[in-house]
Amino acid sequence: MARDRQPDILVVGGGLGGVAATLAAARLGMRVLLTEETDWIGGQLTVQAVPPDEHPWIEGTGCTPTYQRLRRAIRDYYRRNYPLLPDARFDPQLNPGLGRVSPLCHEPRVALLAMYELLAPYLTSGRVTMKLRCRPVAAHVDGDRVRAVTLRDAAGTETTIEAAYILDATELGDLLELAEIEHVIGAESQAETGEPHALAGDADPLDQQAVTACFAMDYLPDEDHTTERPEDYGFWRTYRADFWPGPQLGWLFVDPVTLDVRRQGVFEESGREDLWGFRRIFYKGHFPAGHFASDISLVNWPQNDYWLGPLVGVSAEERAANERAARQLSLSFLHWMQTEAPRHDGGFGYPGLRLRGDVVGTHDGLAKHVYVRESRRIRAELTVLEQHVAVEARGKLEGAEPFPDSVGIGSYRIDLHPSTRGRTYVDISSWPFQIPLGALIPIRVENVLPAAKNLGVTHITNGCYRLHPVEWSIGEAAGALAAYCLRNGVPPRHVRSDAKQLAQFQHLLHAVLGIPLVWPNPRATIR
Question: What count of Cα atoms within 13 Å lies in the side-chain half-sphere of residue 283?
Fold first, then answer.
């Protein structure tokens, strides 16, 4: 077993939260080791291939300066390297894909390069080091502290890393289980949280949001790129959930907000929005005619949400089976679109749809990792509830609950996809909210901090704390907190409980790192 030089801070998981945590800690003078189980950092933005889900004010407020730097770096990459037409090149809010889901839809690999650009000075200096293609397999615990984490690389070699602070930025909160840190999975009950949309009966740990195996595709209508019939195609071709208006491989689905039946195809007649433009990540109209043969669209649509089994709280074999089934669903959806889907102009099938594995960096054409919407979550000093942020649950109160220990801000609807227990969408309005420091502090363990979706939220409030800019803010706050605690010799819970320490830490966040702690217009809402 190898043993490396030990960092000040170990960040396990290279998703958006992990990258932001690493960047914050390095900026504050710490030596950081960032690990990642795949060969790409960036998590949901790259490895899972999901264009950023962002709130309506993202261009001007509601995120940290480093997240805005990331967004600028992505746009600047296109301006430097692509033959954009003048209208696109000089558009300060260039949307490379012209997708409707975000003002910045782009290729995953461009985000990957942009993140390396942000980290470059610290990688060169050696303040940040990375271990890719390795995952945590053991945690070495001494009382209320985690002394070290053992990582296993793709060749099976194990390395044990000791660090004063360890941040869990894994997609599923892996360290919480390995170190037996108190945590929650699945859906809580109303009796436990009092949340209007929590389960009316008992809590259900295996009631978790759907995952999605995303993929990119372009369209060459005069060519035939039909894939081989997937192994599970026969099952998915006829499968229909009780709450779904038709077969899952079809153009009928449920509107997430109203739960009304909607029909929407990959392409539609003129004047109607289609699925193609929803998460489009490359728009050929930004370039001279004929320069690129097609747009590229990212498929993270209702039809390839997988809800037949969870990823946590089950055996490794069951998790692997569910991940495989999610990938089979996506491959089956593509094959159905190529061969059997009713066309917008009559007939059946779009054989010109071409899987673009090169865009997501894989041979099979699917994203490197399934899109994870819900993680293990720490039992925290403070758990954010629906009553803190949801418009309806707040009643006559305007704005989200103000937290005096705020370490960041975020905004998104409470957006829960269908669950592994056969429940449909929960998609409700929420106020712009704060990220409380108490949600980053485990109730017992002293030196492990959540740096992603695994903070102190519920199954319900995870629905608005899980999106790209919020995860980045969570990670940035966690990285800064670990650095502050190391520099000042105080544990995280003391920073929250001591008014002087809290004020100093919030000053570091706001005055030094530029992180907003309150919304400029806290009464704004997403309806």
Answer: 21
Residue ranges and CATH numbers for the domains of the chain are 2-188+373-512 (3.50.50.60), 211-360 (no CATH)
Per-residue pLDDT tens for 20-38?
Answer: 999 999 999 999 999 999 9
Encode burial over 27-44: b for 16+ CB neighbours within 10 A, e otherwise: bbebbbbbbbbbebbbbb
Residue for token pair 């929650």: 184
- Measured from the Cβ of residue 358, the count of other Cβ atoms closer than 10 Å reads 12
When pLDDT is cut at 50, 70 and 90, the band that residue 525 belongs to is: low
* Phi/psi at 495 (5° precision): -60, -40
Strands 9-12, 165-168: pairing is parallel
Strands 158-162 and 2-3: parallel
- Whole-number percent of the chain with pLDDT over 90: 96
* 510 CB neighbour count, 10 Å cutoff: 16
Side-chain half-sphere of 321: how many Cα atoms within 13 Å?
Answer: 8
Contact 270, 182 (CB under 8 A): no
pLDDT tens-digit series, residues 72-81: 999 999 999 9
14 vs 18: CA distance, rounded Å: 5
Helices 16-27 & 108-125 angle (0-180, nearest 10): 30
pLDDT at 3 over 70: no
How far apart CA 477 and CA 436 sit, in angstroms, is: 10
Tokens standing for 523?
Answer: 């009464």
Rounded mean pLDDT of 409-433?
97
Give dist(CA 509, CA 25) in Å, integer.
Answer: 12
The structure tokens listed for 101 are: 């889901």
Which structure tokens are listed for 217?
A: 């595709």
Residue 5 has pLDDT above 90, yes or no: no
Please name which of 259, 290, 218, 222 lies closest in space to residue 416, comparing C-alpha atoms.
Answer: 259
- Collapsing DSSP to helix, strand or coil, 89 comes out as helix
Task: Write the DSSP symbol of residue 512.
Answer: I
Structure tokens at 461: 């409030």
pLDDT at 522 (0 to 100)? 61
The mean of the pLDDT values for the chain is 96
Name every residue whose Cβ is closer than 8 Å to that of residue 231 and which is 6 or more positions away in sequence.
328
Contacts of 364 (CB under 8 A, 6+ apart): 327, 331, 357
Tell me how far apart the alpha carbons of residues 162 and 460 are, in angstroms, rounded to a whole number. 35
Dihedral in degrees, nearest 10, Cα atoms 358, 41, 59, 430: 110
The rounded distance, in Å, linking the Cα atoms of 446 and 353 is: 51
Q: How many helical (H) and strand (E) elements, i.e. helices and strands, does the chain have?
A: 15, 23
